[in-house]
Every structure is written in C-alpha cells, then in structure tokens.
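Re: that backbone. Tokens:
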C-alpha cells in the first residue's frame, strides 16, 4: 500500500536561488558598509595624527604661561621648518637649540609609526607648510601655515626713551644698541644689533616665532635693559621701553673741536743756531707760507743745538686743551741730519723724538698732550707762557741741517 504525505512543502529551486541572491546582496552591502566604516576610522585617525604632527612643528597656540603663548614647537626652537618628520623625534644634527622630541610619547612607541598614516603609507613632508596622506581612497592634506614666512620672517616694532621720556635725538642714536638673540635655523643662536632713529623708534626684522632675548644698551654707560619678546605668526605687536636713567634729557651737545695756530713773534730763551736771510733768528722761521732757503736757521756739526722762540698769544682762552703740537719745516744738505721739535716751559727745554731729515723740505712734528713740566693737562696760562722751536744736528759745517719755518697748533674743545 502506498502511503501519501499531505501538506509537506519545501523550497523550490527558484526560491533557493532567490534566497541565495538576497543573502549575497545583504552580505555585499554589509561588507561595503564595513569597508567604508574602516576607511572612515582610518581617515579620522590620520587627520588626528596630522594635527599632532602640525602642532609638533609650529606649537600649540592654546598653551600659555603668564598670559603669553608658551609653545612654538620645532620652529620656535630652531627658527626654521624641520627638513622631515624624523627631525621632530630625533635631533637632525647636533642642533643646540633643538628641544625635542616634539611628539607625544604614545605617538612614538615604534620607530616609524609617527611617519605613517593609518593605512601604513608614509606621510609626504619635506619641510614645507603642509603634510599629505595618500594611503586612503582620497588624498588628505593638513595645512600648517598659509606661508612659511608667517613663522620665520616676522618683525617687531618698538621705541626707546629715557627716564624723563626724552628721545635719543641725533646726538644719541649711535649710543643705543638694540640686540635680539634668535635661533638661526641651523641649530645655533645669532644676535642681531639694531639702532633707533632720532625719535627712539626701531624695527627688528626677519624674526622667527618664539620667545627671544632682547637687550637695549646705552653704550656710553653700559646701562642695559634685559627683556624678552614673544613673536607670533604674522607678528604685529610692539612695545615701548624706557631706561631707568635720564640719558637723553637736557643732553649737552657734543664738544666742538677747534685749533689755534701760534707763530714765533720774538726771540726765546735759547738761541744757539746760525741764521741766514733774516735779522733775527725768529724772523727766519715766522712766515705763514714757507720761503724755503730764502731765510733759515742751521746747525752744521754732529751735535744738537737749539733755538726756541716766544709765540703769539692764543686767540682762545676757554675750552679744554687736548694737545700742543710743534711743527718744523726742515731739511739736510747731505750725509746725516736730524731735527727734534722742541718746547720750552717753566724754564726747561723739552725735546721731542729725533727725526731724520731728507734733502727736501718736509714737515716734522711732535705732540704733547699734557704739560711736560707738570704732567697735567694744559691750561691757557701755560699756552701763553710757552716757547717753541727746534734742535738741529747736521752732518758737518759744510753739510748743515736747516729749518725754515716753525709753528704751534693748540687743539682744544669747547
């Protein structure tokens, strides 16, 4: 007897195929969704890493100390963008200003991880202002700065005055040095020196971001202000500075230099030289323009003899005397010949250094910055009372030494 089973149903071949297709579609959608989700996670991770790398390069603007930005990263320490990402973790070559690593410890647990994006491909960075990731399906770029100059070529404006708010003026602009010490971009420090203008204003240029040492020095007294300036990207800040002393206030003008020329006007205390072409020895040497051999004094033998002459009174009577110089115009005949410019004061003869003569008329001189009799600064009464001349030494009586002109220059300031 044949048994029949009722109400038993199953999948037809078509139904089974449809079911398999539906499952495949669902699986494909799920896989695509999973792949997209993984790619999104890697994108977010890579963007976060690139942000950390950018912060390591130029610092975190939100980190502050006493209200001022305190973190400028690699650029702030070195003064230049790093040549590659490895320089953020390892000193690129004995740089003394390098203060890394600049990356968080968890970011550098392995040797190369910080240089690879989330897909395991190396970031593209060669010292510019952007970091690029090409590991994913689309290129990711992190812009560090609009321009490199924003971080390494800034300027700072300032001004300097004294305690009484006076400016340097034209008198003291060369007496103020403004020194700023900055990283030189190659691992060292360079100090640049600037000067203010007459109104005290100055501009410091080509500055990298960071906090730098600034010194303002009044050089005549070595009075120094030591300060620090913080340079921000595209810096527009400035500051006024003030010395503690009144260096520029009621400044006396710089002393004016002047000279007074004195010429012989009479016989002096010593008259040992022979003369020719004149009635009195002083008349042989008193002319304003040399007359050469027309009138002259001479000495023939091989020892020194001296003439000194009284001088015109100086036209000045005030001011600080800085020196008295005796000039002689002299020559020799042939053989040996020498001259010693001579000053006579307080009844004593003082001879200058021995200077050998030539056969042509030339000028010979000797300066005394102080009175040789007292060793002290010259006074105007000293000048009124001095006499001047020369000591001559010729080869022999047939070949004497000659002098045709004597004058005295008194240099002074007032």
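Recovered sequence:
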């Amino acid at each position: 007897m044949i048994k029949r089973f009722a109400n038993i149903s199953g999948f037809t071949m078509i139904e089974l195929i449809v079911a398999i297709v539906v499952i495949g579609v669902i699986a494909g959608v799920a896989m695509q969704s999973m792949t997209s989700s993984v790619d999104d996670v890697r994108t977010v991770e890579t963007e976060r890493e690139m942000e950390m790398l950018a912060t390591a390069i130029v610092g975190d603007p939100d980190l502050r100390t006493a209200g001022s930005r305190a973190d400028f990263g690699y650029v702030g320490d070195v003064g230049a963008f790093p040549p590659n990402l490895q320089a953020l973790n390892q000193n690129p070559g004995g740089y003394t200003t390098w203060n890394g690593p600049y990356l968080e410890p968890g970011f550098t647990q392995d040797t190369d991880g910080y240089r690879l994006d989330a897909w395991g491909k190396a970031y593209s960075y060669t010292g510019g202002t952007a970091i690029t990731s090409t590991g994913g399906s689309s290129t990711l770029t992190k812009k560090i700065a609009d321009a490199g100059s924003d971080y390494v070529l800034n300027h700072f404006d300032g001004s300097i005055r004294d305690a009484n708010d006076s400016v340097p003026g034209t008198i003291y602009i060369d007496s103020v040095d403004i020194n700023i010490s900055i990283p030189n971009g190659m691992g060292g420090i360079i100090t640049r020196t600037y000067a203010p203008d007459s109104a005290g204003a100055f501009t410091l240029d080509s500055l990298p971001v960071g906090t730098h040492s600034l010194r303002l020095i009044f050089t005549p007294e070595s009075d120094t202000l030591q300060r620090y300036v913080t340079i921000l990207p595209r810096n527009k800040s400035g500051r006024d500075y003030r010395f503690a002393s009144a260096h520029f206030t009621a400044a006396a003008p710089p002393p004016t230099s002047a000279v007074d020329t004195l010429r012989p006007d009479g016989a002096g205390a010593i008259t040992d030289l022979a003369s020719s072409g004149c009635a009195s020895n002083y008349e042989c040497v008193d002319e304003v323009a040399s007359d050469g051999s027309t009138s002259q004094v001479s000495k023939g033998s091989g020892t020194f003899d001296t003439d000194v002459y009284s001088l015109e009174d100086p036209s000045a009577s005030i001011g600080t005397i800085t020196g008295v110089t005796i000039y002689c115009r002299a020559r020799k005949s042939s053989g040996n010949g020498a001259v010693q410019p001579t000053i006579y004061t307080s009844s004593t003869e003082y001879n200058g250094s021995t200077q050998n003569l030539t056969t042509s008329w030339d000028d010979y001189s000797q300066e005394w910055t102080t009175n040789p009799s007292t060793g002290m600064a010259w006074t105007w009464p000293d000048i009124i009372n001095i006499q001047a001349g020369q000591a001559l030494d010729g080869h022999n009586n047939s070949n004497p030494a000659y002098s045709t002109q004597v004058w005295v220059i008194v240099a002074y300031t007032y």
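The two ends are 152 Å apart (CA to CA). The longest helix spans residues 13-58.
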